[in-house]
Amino acid sequence: MSKTGITRVTVKPGDPRPTGGTEWVRLDAMADEEVVAAAQSDPDAQPLAPEQLATMRRVSRVKLLRQRLGMTQAEFAEAFHLPITTLRDWEQRRSTPDAPARALLLAIERDPEAMRRLLADRAA
C-alpha cells in the first residue's frame, strides 16, 4: 500500500474488477506491529532482501500504458502509427521517447479513443 493509503490495481478493459475479502474494520483495529506480523506470516508475500530490490527495474511507462489499454505491442504500434521496433526499444529501455513522442504518448494516455479516431482519420 502506498503512503496515501491507496492500492492501485491494473485491470484490463473488459475484465471484471477483483473482489476482495479484506476486513477493514478488523485491520483498522490492529496495531501496526500486528499488521506487520500478519503480513510476514503470509508465505506468498515475503519481503524482498535489499540485494533483490537493488536488482529490480521499474516497468516502463510506455509498457504500463499499453497494458492498461489491453493492447499487444503490434496492436498499439498499429493503432498509433508507431514502428513496432521503436515501441519495443522504449519498453525494454534501450531508448527513450523524444519530446514529440512523449507528447503523443501523453495524449494517448489522456484520451486513447480520441487519439485513435484522430490517427484513423489521418490514414483515410
Structural features, described:
The protein is mainly alpha-helical and 124 residues long. It has a domain at 61-123: Orthogonal Bundle (434 Repressor (Amino-terminal Domain)). The protein is built from 8 helices and no strands. It has helices spanning 24-29, 32-40, 50-55, 61-68, 73-79, 84-91, 99-110, 112-123. Helix 7 crosses helix 8. The longest helix is centred in the last third of the chain and has 12 residues, at 99-110. The protein is elongated and about 55 Å long. The model has no long low-confidence stretch (mean pLDDT 86).
Write a concise keyword list for the protein shown above.
124 residues; mainly alpha; 434 Repressor (Amino-terminal Domain); 8 helices; 55% helix; elongated
Category by helix and strand content: mainly alpha
Query: Would you list the SSEs in sequence order as H and E?
Result: HHHHHHHH
> If you consult CATH, what is the topology of the domain at 61-123?
434 Repressor (Amino-terminal Domain)
Q: Using DSSP, what is the number of strands?
A: 0
> What is the typical, i.e. mean, pLDDT?
86
The CATH class of the domain at 61-123:
Mainly Alpha
Helix content: 40-55%
- What is the overall number of helices? 8
Name the CATH superfamily assignment of the domain at 61-123.
Answer: lambda repressor-like DNA-binding domains
